[in-house]
Design goal:
Keywords: Coiled coil. It is a single chain. It is built from 13 helices and six strands. Among the domains are: 146 residues, no CATH class; 65 residues. The protein is mainly alpha-helical.
């Protein structure tokens, strides 16, 4: 019969060794997670941003939780180190040593200062205290809870920052183009309702972008899991812009049909030129970020079409309508083809970035699945996830190698999720 101690029956030598092995693996997993949290782009942005509203309040709590995480991890590390040191003294530990090891591994003998516990956690158990006596299991429970809360906060903020401001900028740029077109036909604030709407929309987009930067969590919808950015304001602004655009086009139709067709041609060719310029810039970015040799080259703008457009505008200015009409018929078809070619070029050039984004999304999705299955601390999964993440977040990124590592991670998740593992499964590849 085992001797009873303060923490229950005294553990035997084999029980102690098994517990130390388990705790060592757990310690490594926790440390890896904490370092990942420390390096998360969302956390770095939150630390440096001028926050307001919901995000400011939530980040204050999250920052306190992260501080507590590290304090508890240090206490966990010290306790594990003390247990290892005590176990290493003798091959066959004495009963006294086994009792002490039992206390370290199962008892509430780990001291944590009350000041390291976030206020919202203290409120669950009463007022703040000078210190607490906790077990290793309680330490891990707390660290897991705070880590999940912290990762939820930083990941949500990062998702909003990655999605909304850039989209708002594109919509604002499109709004400015519509505004310039509206001004050219006399649709201005105070002179036409669409002009007032445009001015209001510009101000609204400016305010919307500022709010997404300072308070990203106000634009996060956590349900259904895993959550997504709330694009309600952005979508509403987009619909308003489309309505304004239709009104401006209605004004354009009042004007001479030829002038309308010339304006459309200018817009289509301008968009084609901008798209080609964007494709050339994107190609440079792809070559610097993706390890690839098959990125297609991007041609320049169609000079002949621009020359023909100049001739058409001259025909309109000099009222040569009989010569303008057939030229416009030809130009409209060629301009649409040019815009399509430019868009196809941009799509082809940015395809590697889309592949990389899909791989990143798949990796994150499987990591979330791992967390739901309770396998987040499995060493093999951690190793394979880290391999895939390093490849996907390195530059230039080897997409072939990254795809293989993501598939290996998926395979490991599938294998580990179908049944119990043996000790040899945890060693990973040789």
């Amino acid at each position: 019969m085992a001797v009873a101690g303060a923490s229950g029956p005294v553990m035997g030598r084999e029980d102690v060794d098994l517990a130390l092995e388990r705790l060592a693996a757990e310690h490594e997993a926790v440390e890896t997670s904490l370092l990942a949290l420390q390096d998360h782009s969302g956390r770095r942005l939150l630390e440096g941003a001028e926050l307001t509203g919901v995000t400011k309040e939530r980040w204050a709590r999250t920052d306190a939780a992260v501080t507590a995480l590290w304090a508890h991890f240090e206490a966990y590390t010290d306790a594990l180190g003390a247990a290892r040191e005590l176990r290493a003294r003798h091959r066959w530990p004495t009963q006294t040593e086994l009792a002490r090891l039992t206390e370290l591994l199962r008892g509430d003998g780990i001291t944590v200062l009350g000041g390291t516990v976030p206020d919202h956690e203290r409120s669950l158990t009463g007022p703040a205290v000078a210190s607490e006596q906790l077990s290793l299991d309680e330490l891990v429970r707390r660290m897991n809870t705070w880590y999940d809360q912290a990762m939820e906060t930083v990941a949500a903020a990062d998702s909003v920052w990655s999605a909304l401001p850039a989209r708002i900028d594109l919509l604002a740029a499109e709004t400015q183009r519509v505004r310039s077109l509206a001004h050219s036909v006399g649709v201005r604030p105070g002179e036409h309702p669409a002009g007032d709407e445009l001015a209001s929309l510009v101000a609204e987009l400016t305010q919307l972008r500022a709010r997404t930067v300072s308070d990203p969590l106000a634009f996060w919808t956590p349900r259904p899991a895993p959550g997504r950015p709330d694009t309600t304001g952005y979508d509403s602004a987009g619909r308003r812009l489309e309505e304004i655009r239709r009104e401006v086009e209605a004004v354009l139709h009042v004007r001479d049909d030829a002038e309308h067709r010339l304006a459309r041609l200018r817009d289509v060719m301008s968009r084609a030129d901008r798209t080609l310029t964007e494709a050339r810039s994107a190609r440079v970015e792809v070559l610097s970020k993706i390890l690839a040799s098959d990125v297609p080259a991007v041609s320049g703008p169609a000079a002949a079409l621009h020359e023909q457009l100049g001739a058409a505008e001259e025909f309109a200015r000099t009222a040569q309508w009989h010569r303008l009409s057939p030229l416009l018929d030809s130009l409209e078809g060629h301009a649409d083809d040019e815009l399509l070619r430019a868009r196809e070029s941009l799509t082809a050039v940015t395809a590697p970035l889309a592949v990389r984004a899909e791989l990143r999304g798949r990796l994150d999705a499987y990591r979330a699945k791992v967390a739901r299955l309770g396998m987040a601390e499995d060493p093999l999964l951690i190793e394979r996830y880290d391999q895939a993440r390093r490849l996907l977040w390195s530059a230039p990124c080897d997409l072939g190698a990254a795809d293989r590592t993501v598939r290996r991670y998926q395979q490991a998740v599938a294998e580990l999720g179908t049944g119990p593992r043996t000790p040899t499964d945890r060693t990973g590849p040789g």
